[in-house]
Structure of 6-phospho-3-hexuloisomerase:
Amino acid sequence: MRTIEYQAEIIKELNQTVNLIADEEADKLVDRILRSKKVFVAGAGRSGLMVRAFAMRMMQMGIEAYVVGETVTPNLGKDDLLIIGSGSGETKSLVPMAEKAKSLSGSVAIVTISPESTIGKIADIIVKLPGSPKDQTDSGYKTIQPMGALFEQTLLVFCDAVILKMMDSQKLDSNTMFSRHANLE
C-alpha cells in the first residue's frame, strides 16, 4: 500500500471509533473538570503524551491543570480530579496513583478501552473508548495499526472534543486561549 492509502485507512478507523463513544460519559467528564479546583492528568507511553496535550489545552482555557510527575505539580486535594488515560486500565505505575488520589478524597476519571479494569473499578468517571489493546490477539476490534495506536489517536481526538465542549460552555474562543499560550518558545 502507498502511504496515502494507510492514512486513509487510519482516518476510516478513527471515524468508526468516534461514533462509538457515549456522549453521557463525556458530559460527566466535562462537568467534573469544570467543577474541579485542580485537574491532574496521568498516562504512560503514548497515552501519556495524549493526556499531556489535554492538560496543555485545559491550561490555555484557564483551568488549573497539571501533569503528574512534573516538578511543578502541586498536591492533590479533595476538590481535585485525576484523569488517567490508559487503554488497559492496568498500567502498573498508574494503579497506585489512582488509589492514592482516592485516599486523598480526590476524584478519579479514566479514559480507557477496559472499564472493568483495576483503575476502572477505582474511578468515579469512566469514559470507554473503542480500540484494540497493545496485544491484539483476543481483541474484538480490528485495526491495521500496531499495538495501541488506534486507542491513542482516539484518546487525542476525544480530548480535543472535550476541550471544544468546554470552550462552548464557557463561551471561550481560540483568541482567548491564545492569550495563555506559551510565549518563551
In short: The first helix runs from residue 3 to 18. The longest strand covers residues 107-112.
